[in-house]
Amino acid sequence: MKNFLGVLFILTLGTVPAWAVLGQYESSVSVDQEFLRSADSVQAFQTYKIHQLTSANGTIIREYVSPKGLVFGVTWQGPFMPSMQQLLGSYVTNLQTASPAQTHIRHLRGLTVKTNDFVFVSGGHMRFWKGNAYVPSLIPNNVSVEVVR
After folding, report:
1. Distance between CA 91 and CA 111 in Å, rounded?
2. What is residue 135's predicted lDDT score, i.e. its pLDDT?
3. Contact between residue 76 and residue 93 where contact means Cβ atoms under 8 Å apart
């Protein structure tokens, strides 16, 4: 089990380009768009926005932004795991320091980490990875956590 967790952690620190950072301001999305040379598809809802970026390798990143301009959640899906260091920013330490009680490993399928103010769910298999991470305290009022899935 420890080997699987170690391998999954190494995969999450992969070498995919930078994305907007969880807990940071929306301006980081435009930096990502320029870096990826991709279109930024934006969906605006009454209480949040979703920026969707698609990388050249087919990985889709959705960044959920509150009215305050903060990224409160991110989702990913594609043939490669994005860099969790880039996606989660300072919240990546929650993955590294989560206690066994806060961590659930699904046999060869994925990882769930749930702390007081951070939720991370990721899984998949070779050539198909998906997941999400969010900060409950940053989610706008009247928005369900289910939107970040």
Report:
1. 16
2. 97
3. no
Higher per-residue confidence, 30 vs 4: 30
The closest alpha carbon to 115, from 130, 95, 131, belongs to 95
**In the beta sheet, which residues pair with residue 122?**
111, 131
Residue 79 CA to residue 72 CA, distance in Å, equals: 24
Strands laid side by side in the 49-54 sheet: 41-44, 49-54, 60-65, 71-78, 128-134, 118-125, 110-115, 103-106
Question: What's the rounded Cα separation, in Å, for the pair 105 and 124?
Answer: 12
Closest CA to 21 of 96, 72, 57: 72
CA triplet 123, 129, 131: central angle to 5 degrees?
55
Provide the residue ranges of all domains of the chain, joining segments of one domain with +: 2-148
- 44-51 contacts at long range (C-beta below 8 A, 24 or more positions apart): 47/140, 47/141, 47/142, 47/143, 48/72, 48/140, 48/143, 48/147, 51/20, 51/26
pTM, two decimal places: 0.82
| The two three-digit tokens of residue 81, written as one number | 């795991």
Cβ neighbours, 10 Å, residue 112? 16
* Assigned token pair, 91: 């919240």
* pLDDT for 27: 78
